[in-house]
Amino acid sequence: MEYLDFELPIKELHEQLEKCKLLGKESNVDVRETYSQIKRQLAKVKEEIHKNLTAWQRVQLSRHPSRPYTLDYINAICGDTFLELHGDRTIKDDKAMIGGLGKIGDQSYMFIGHQKGFDIKSRQYRNFGMANPEGYRKALRLMKSAEKFNIPIVSFIDTPGAHPGVEAEERGQGEAIARNIIEIFQLKVPIIVIIIGEGASGGALGIGVGDKVLMLENSWYSVISPENCSTILWRTREHKEQAAEALKLTAKDGKRLGIIDGIIREPLGGAHFDRDEIFSAVEKIITSSYKNIKELSAEELIRIRMEKYNKIGVYQE
User: Fold this and answer.
1) Global pTM value
2) What is the CB-side half-sphere exposure of residue 23 using CA atoms within 13 A?
3) What share of residues in the chain are helix, strand, coil (percent, to 5)?
4) What is the pLDDT of residue 23?
5) Closest CA to 244 of 221, 267, 265
6) What's residue 194's pLDDT?
7) Which residues pair with 222 in a beta bridge?
8) Above 90 in pLDDT, residue 316?
9) In whole angstroms, what is the distance from residue 230 CA to residue 43 CA?
């Protein structure tokens, strides 16, 4: 298990716990009382640290290398019913954007999502979760297919942004994202969006329009990353903590400002500490969210979706 800088006290107690356990196995010393004391202290410290996280610390947790990614959720929720679909039918298959059909119980869903890698080779293969225009066009193609067969859509968002390369701009990155936003608003099937990690800028918005938009407790959603915001405003990345606070990018901020509809609570320590728990929570929220909107007609679905987004950013002085 990897630990972040603010989690070092947790790491130290974990190591003490393991040493105590090992001592008990290798000798005749009764370490049960000591083991219990360390375990209680660990639980207390863990709770104290994670109940008072700053915005920047939540950003760090959203990027934890052990955090589950889109395919982890889909495979855990759908099992062997998931069938991945490929290609935008124009350029190629973008590995940073995945999609396909899967089932939760007897209900079929079209799953779309950004996919990151877990080591150097897979991160390069997945382009660090940054989709090219063909990725967004693939996502739209699959969403249109879902609409044709009246299948609800689930989008998992986890990206540091759309790919910023010259070749992506040459192939129409901005147009692809903008077209997705326009087209998704008009889809006649329920759409559930879950931000599982990073939700940065247009890269997130390209598949981020939905009837129910939810965030994991330690995810973030913003027009720009804290580092890039700091670079623009202060010409250095050193003010990233201050930028994270100012951007109001946490799940609590999103709920308070009406940008999202709900927060999915994570296991203490983050989603990576208990994968089974977070997979179960996400499965339940998908099922309950779909149940709440599945009876709406296509016209009602689109009208409510439009009204939802038109309200964002409205305020009175």
Assistant:
1) 0.93
2) 13
3) 55, 15, 30
4) 79
5) 221
6) 98
7) 200
8) no
9) 35
Closest CA to 219 of 157, 309, 153, 284: 157
Query: For 58-311, which CATH class?
Result: alpha beta
By the 10 Å C-beta count (0-12 exposed, 13-18 middle, 19+ buried), 6 is classed as middle
CA 11, distance to chain mean position in Å, is 25
Q: What is the number of residues in the chain?
A: 317
Query: Could you give the angle at the alpha carbon of 80 between the alpha carbons of 74 and 83, nearest 5°?
Result: 70
Q: What is the token pair recorded at 38?
A: 């360390």
Listed residue (211, 199, 201) closest to 173, CA to CA: 201
Look up residue 316 and give its amino acid.
Answer: Q
Task: List, in order, residues 6 or more apart from 207 with CB less than 8 Å away.
Answer: 97, 112, 113, 114, 136, 139, 155, 157, 180, 184, 193
66, 76 in Cβ contact below 8 A?
Answer: no
Burial of 9 (0-12, 13-18, 19+ CB in 10 A): middle
Task: Give yes or no for a contact between 209 and 185, defined as CB atoms under 8 angstroms apart.
Answer: yes
214, pLDDT greater than 90: yes
- Non-local (6+) Cβ contacts of 49 within 8 A are 6, 7, 9, 10
CA nearest neighbour of 181 among 207, 213, 199: 207
> 238-252 pLDDT, tens per residue?
999 999 999 999 999
138, 97 Cβ separation under 8 angstroms: yes
Average pLDDT on 41-52 reads: 89
In this structure, the number of other CB atoms found within 10 A of the CB of residue 31 comes to 16
194 or 4, which is more confident: 194
Q: Are 172 and 163 in contact (CB under 8 A)?
A: no
